[in-house]
Amino acid sequence: MLKAGLFSLLVALMCLSGCATKPYVATDYEASYNFAALKSFAVKSAKQDTKENILISPFTLSHIHALVNGELAKRYQSVGESATPDFYVTYHVVMEEKLEPTAYDQMYGFGFWGRGYRYPSSMFYRPPLDGGIRVYNQGSLIIDMVDAKTQQPIWRGVSEKRLNKGLNPQKQREILTSAVLEVLAQFPPVK
Questions:
Q1: CB under 8 Å, gap of 24 or more: what pairs does 67-70 form?
Q2: Architecture per CATH, 2-98+135-184
């Protein structure tokens, strides 16, 4: 039962689902690298070798693989496993449970928002009350580009988003597609 619940949670998190806001996208790269010389690529399959990512659906991983391959094939030549490309592409999905402290205060008085005049006596004001801790899930999609000759990383793109549970697979893939496209739109970097 616990495994099924974790699986559902991880699939929902991984697909960067949730709010209507765009995910946060950040990139970093080797500034001295000549990205204009890149002509061919190969996408490496994600490894499911840890207990965190073993619960990620193989269908979701194949969706990411096909999407990354298809998007980069619009700009570069995709090569088979027997040939050596200019760069390799790897991708990872990380899901974390995060804590957010919540607080609210009780102001007494009157005014436009009920927070107008504060009485000078401490009898009419209470300090902020601890509302507890809100637990939420943060999903990250990480796409790395690695030089095929040196095996050194040359570029990394990360998309992060707060996630909701319970989305159907179609909606999850729509959100995941958006995240992949937003990350790959930043490659190659503009110097």
A1: 67/176, 67/177, 67/180, 67/181, 68/43, 68/143, 68/180, 68/184, 69/43
A2: 2-Layer Sandwich (3.30)
